[in-house]
Amino acid sequence: MITKRIIPCLDVRNGRVVKGVNFEGVADVDSPVALGKYYSDNGADELVFYDITASFEERKLFTDILREVASQIFIPLTVGGGINTVEDFDRVLKCGADKVSVNSGAIRNPGLIGEASKIYGDQCVVLSVDIKRVDNTFHVFAKGGRVDTGMDAIKWIEEGVSLGAGEIVVNSIDTDGVKKGFDIELLKLVRKAVNVPVIASGGAGCIKDFVDLFEEIPDIDAGLAASIFHFGEVSIPDLKQELKKHGIPVRLNG
Amino acid sequence: MIAIIDYGVGNLFSLCSSFKSIGYDAVISDDAETILNADKIILPGVGAFEDAAKKLHLSGMDKTVKKAASLGKPVMGICLGMQLLFDKSFEYGEHDGLHMIPGNVIPLKGYIKDGLMIPHIGWNALHFRKKDPLFKYIKEGDYVYFVHSYYAADCDEHTVADTDYGGTVTAIVRKDNVVGCQFHPEKSGEVGLNILRAFCEK
Fold this sequence. Notes:
The complex is a heterodimer.
Chain A: E1 5-13, E2 16-21, E3 24-28, H1 32-41, E4 47-51, H2 56-72, E5 77-80, H3 86-94, E6 99-102, H4 104-108, H5 111-120, E7 125-134, E8 137-142, E9 147-152, H6 153-163, E10 167-172, H7 184-193, E11 198-201, H8 207-216, E12 222-225, H9 227-230, H10 236-245
Parallel strand pairs in A: 1-4, 1-12, 4-5, 5-6, 6-7, 7-10, 10-11, 11-12
Antiparallel strand pairs in A: 1-2, 2-3, 7-8, 8-9
Helix pairs in contact in A: 1-2, 8-10
Chain B: E1 2-5, H1 13-21, E2 26-29, H2 32-37, E3 40-43, H3 49-58, H4 61-70, E4 75-78, H5 80-83, E5 88-89, E6 95-96, E7 104-107, E8 120-125, E9 127-128, E10 143-148, E11 150-153, E12 159-164, E13 168-175, E14 178-181, H6 189-200
Parallel strand pairs in B: 1-2, 1-3, 3-4, 4-14, 5-7
Antiparallel strand pairs in B: 5-6, 7-11, 8-10, 9-12, 12-13, 13-14
């Protein structure tokens, strides 16, 4: 049977890995290649590289680093950040990415999802959504979680899947950086709404948070986190051993 | 030297890098002579069967890969490249494959247990059905990375490993010097590299 995936996310700026707390206040951690290789050797099932740079020059630096990562790390790589056009897909796929994650670019132009999935296949297009509670409803936030679009999150995710998104990353702004567990309420709603893999993001603070995630939502596919892995608060081998003890299917070798 | 056949399908960067990382020279080529002179040949592929089969034919690489196999060169098809080795695919219609391994490529939909997601994406365990030199550095139950919506059927005789996804799904096939992997060894971590390592060894 297919295993639950544990995915470290690496935010990259100026060729270095950073992680924001509630999307603000970044701190340097390590080199993307060294950190990626460390995770791959320690049982990460996939890596997400998020380009949080803005300028053209920095973007070039990001793709150079991506090439270097892809020439040394042989697990699936997802790339996000600044993906607005099919040309952006092409740019990162040529550098060794396997999947491309769209967020604000797809909010501005939902047609991007369909266009890209027709060329590269649904499995290549990941829709990443930053979500926050506003007056007891879930809203989609754009631009790194700074701008309330007013869009209903579940409706947007359903639309994204019908347009051709092959996977959904649900990032809860409410739980992100708080380290008190994933947003189970939101994730359950998303899981029920669509029939593509759903990746939980935002809120993991310890091993138990992952156990709770997979026990409370048995058909959630993956858990994604950044700082708890980068700062060594949770080691992936320990995490997977614990998940296995709870009868959750994980990949232990490799 | 390893030749990776370039017929305009998919991104070959990771595949090429994976061979380099285990110490083998790999070239991406659409030149028949280069491919026929290589020690081993990789037929890659992602995307739709019909489009890939057409491109393979238009580039003349279909003849090259068959000739290489008939000369006894080890050939490995990966993912869609594996599916192309079979007689036919029923992905959006009915399309001819290379007829190098008997069998047909059919949808997972309707075959696997209801409620499971398609494509079959993720890490799944290999179960060995026969002995094979490709298993030299891996063991029963090792995990590899799959991404596919169709699978190879009617090929029991040549299936050497399978995986379980709400049904038995063909994972590795072999007919003499021609092998195929449904999963992506170049994305399957150390296990995948060890499969490629075994393939590259004499």
